[in-house]
Amino acid sequence: MCAVQVTFLKCGGVALGTALHHIAIDAVSAFQFFQTWSAFCRDGDGAAAALERPCHDRTLLRARSPPFVHPDALTVFCPPKQQTPSQEPSAGAVANDIFVLSKDQVGALKRACTGGVSTFCAVSAHVWRCVCAARRLPPDAATRLILPANVRRSLRPPLPDRYFGNGVIMLGASGKVRDIVPSEEIWLASVAGRISGVINRMDDELVRSAIDYLELADMAALPAGSMAETELRMVSWLGMPVYDADFGKPLVMHLAVQQRARVVYSTFFKHKPLLPSSPPPTTLPPQMPPPTALLPRMAATTELLEELAEREAPAADADSAKNVEDQAMVEWRRHGQ
Questions:
Q1: Which of 91, 96, 172, 318 has its CA 20 to 30 A from that of 8?
Q2: CA Rg value for the chain
Q3: 335 an active-site residue?
Q4: What is the mean pLDDT of residues 53-75?
Q5: Backbone angles phi, psi at 246, to 5 degrees
């Protein structure tokens, strides 16, 4: 269920890579494991007294008897059978890129959304719109944003803080491409509201219905492969304790590679990541891709957003942000991102 690779660099640095099976644990549990592991490496047996033991009680997420799926649940819950695999021929290896958004740029997006939406909703709305435009999807095509959602706080009673397992279900926000891609009437706030509306509907009944659905489903018959071109998956690591796993002053922590296409992870960097213009580190073993292959250029979108972030008049944010994002759309189409 877990694989570990340690690479020692000639500069004195160390890269720790892990691969975990998502069926067994989610990101919350993974970071709990990393924190516990690093604590024992750092403090030895003394770490046991300071750490809270994990909860392995899987009965907390078992199906009801008899299972029951509320009809309204399927308007938000996105079962695996509804995650249509792509029928396109394989185009080779999946490309992995990192696009950096500064704090000011994220703030500009959130102000443009209005209504106090979360960072995740604002960034997801912007990415969803850009991707639909870049793919040149037909205006009448149905597009969907799939969101892995943490169920721990939505259950009644909530799961224990140290629950160790997979507490994630998939939610889906959908609409016609013409309702997502910019027009005179439709803009960023509308798309962000569509996403936050789906997230706000997650409650105990929805989670229980999702668990019951999975209990009744024939999991062996589920399709495999990348998602369809009309779909995008946004995964949030925002708020995760990614730098609390202290094996020795971690400089950067992020997803190394993604094997499936059309998946976006949102996280934060404690330090500025390595960009392609930086000199590459010393040679790594052949099984490990060079860091410059995993940490590419900043997106043209983020550069254009700087114009909005520098404006001081709040009243001008909405109109200015629309002009900036319209320019970003042109860049995404031109570069085929």
A1: 96
A2: 21
A3: no
A4: 95
A5: -95, 90
Q: Which ranges constitute the DSSP H helices of the chain?
A: 27-43, 47-50, 103-113, 119-134, 177-180, 188-200, 204-216, 291-294, 300-309, 317-335
Q: How buried is residue 207: exposed, middle or buried, by Cβ count under 10 Å (0-12/13-18/19+)?
A: buried
Model confidence pLDDT, tens digit, residues 118-177: 999 999 999 999 899 989 999 999 999 999 999 999 999 999 999 999 999 999 999 999
Q: Which two tokens stand for residue 313?
A: 């008049």
Choosing from 21, 22, 56, 271, which is the catalytic residue? 22
* Identity at 145, one-letter amino acid code: L
Amino acid 208: pLDDT: 97
Query: So what's the pLDDT on residue 101?
Result: 87
- At 115-124, the pLDDT tens digits run 789 999 999 9
Question: Does residue 126 have an active-site annotation?
Answer: no
